[in-house]
Amino acid sequence: NAINTEIERLPLNEALLQLVGNAVPSNINSAHQKLLPAEEQADYLAAKRCIEELALYLKPCQGTPVNVTGLGLVSRPMQRKLVTLVGCQLLEPEGRARAVRAARSLGERSVTELILQHQNPQQLSANLWAAVRARGCQFLGPAMQEEVLKLVLLALEDGSALSRKVLVMFVVQRLEPHFPQASKTSIGHVVQLLYRASCFK
């Protein structure tokens, strides 16, 4: 969507500047606030402060080994959602709408990750197989189902972020020599169930 305010009149992104250690001129806030009605300025400043505080979670952890890259305080999905939120321009109506959507998405992901931290792996596995049977996915057969799960674990053991499509292709290619009936559709059903059961962080 088009930006209605001239670029030169929009403020610097202080949330991003603090991440790279740049100083922010102290006299810029009042000038940019004049672009908003007086009754909205307090809300603008409150939202801006919140985003700046959240942006600090994008900083890498202190004291991590030098050979570990991209290790942050929050998970990769949370980092992506934070970047979206930090990039929203609060002085623009569309930017504020995007910020609300990004904040909601961030909150939903936070709840999901909190639940994952408290789930019992054994109970999760039992629930998963109950869901597989309920959905009529037993056509894979017990042996094939076990191989599918082993291959999924193998694909993800190094922490790689794979899309579901790539994961399905990985499993199918390795199953085909032993299980000719393996197809993208059948394996895709199992991967989808794993995803819906919150087995992937």
From TrEMBL:
InterPro entries according to UniProt: Roquin_1_2-like_ROQ, Roquin_domain
BP-aspect Gene Ontology terms: nuclear-transcribed mRNA catabolic process, deadenylation-dependent decay; protein polyubiquitination; ubiquitin-dependent protein catabolic process
GO molecular function annotations of the record: double-stranded RNA binding; mRNA binding; RNA stem-loop binding; ubiquitin protein ligase activity
An example Gene Ontology CC term for this record: cytoplasmic stress granule
Domain of life: Eukaryota
Domain Roquin 1/2-like ROQ: 127-201
Name of the protein in its database record: Roquin 1/2-like ROQ domain-containing protein
Organism: Bracon brevicornis
